[in-house]
Description:
The complex is a heterodimer of chains A (117) and B (109). In chain A, 3% of the residues lie in helices and 50% in strands. Chain A is built from one helix and eleven strands, in the order E-E-E-E-E-E-E-E-E-H-E-E. In chain A, strands 2, 4, 5, 6, 9, 10 and 11 form a seven-stranded mixed beta sheet that branches. A four-stranded antiparallel beta sheet of chain A has the order 1-3-8-7, with no helix packed on it. By secondary structure, chain B is an all-beta fold. The N and C termini of chain B lie far apart (41 Å). The interface between A and B is medium-sized, with 31 and 26 residues.
Amino acid sequence: NAGVTQTPKFQVLKTGQSMTLQCAQDMNHEYMSWYRQDPGMGLRLIHYSVGAGITDQGEVPNGYNVSRSTTEDFPLRLLSAAPSQTSVYFCASSYSSKVGVRTGELFFGEGSRLTVL
Amino acid sequence: EDQVTQSPEALRLQEGESSSLNCSYTVSGLRGLFWYRQDPGKGPEFLFTLYSAGEEKEKERLKATLTKKESFLHITAPKPEDSATYLCAASYNTDKLIFGTGTRLQVFP
Lengths: 117, 109
């Protein structure tokens, strides 16, 4: 099993450009999520999904879009990149859609480091 | 506002010098408290889940405990390979985890 795979690992964008961060998991997990990690701010939830066709907003959703057409994939789209979106992005999944009460165990990818100039 | 606060921000220990990391959380409505380890350039890795005050979990040199106000991660006789950032997270509903900013632990031989 590959676990949670994120691509690309590194990306540099110019302000106003759009791009998609890819996330795929091969564990048949119901729950998938995107976090961003910034120095001094910790991990902040952007969007999450409790199953195919279902998505919801987290703490910092503005400027980002997600969709979940399959169980395996959960891409994160940056609509018009801004320097404030420079960060390390992590995709995480869990076998339970009720991750907060059933397990708390999230499986994280290796991260995608994004720089917006 | 639900939040999680970790202290200290950084901790330097000599190999074998035991210590504790602290995680305090908003008390009302806590559903679960979780600990993760993160190595540089990697994603966090799950360590423990705690659900009720008085609960304890152990793994090798690590022991996590939970009270009504806070959680502790006790590190007994640490080794250099225990060096990492330790994150705690709390859940107040079924589908979201709120993370603290972490404690960066360095263990020197």
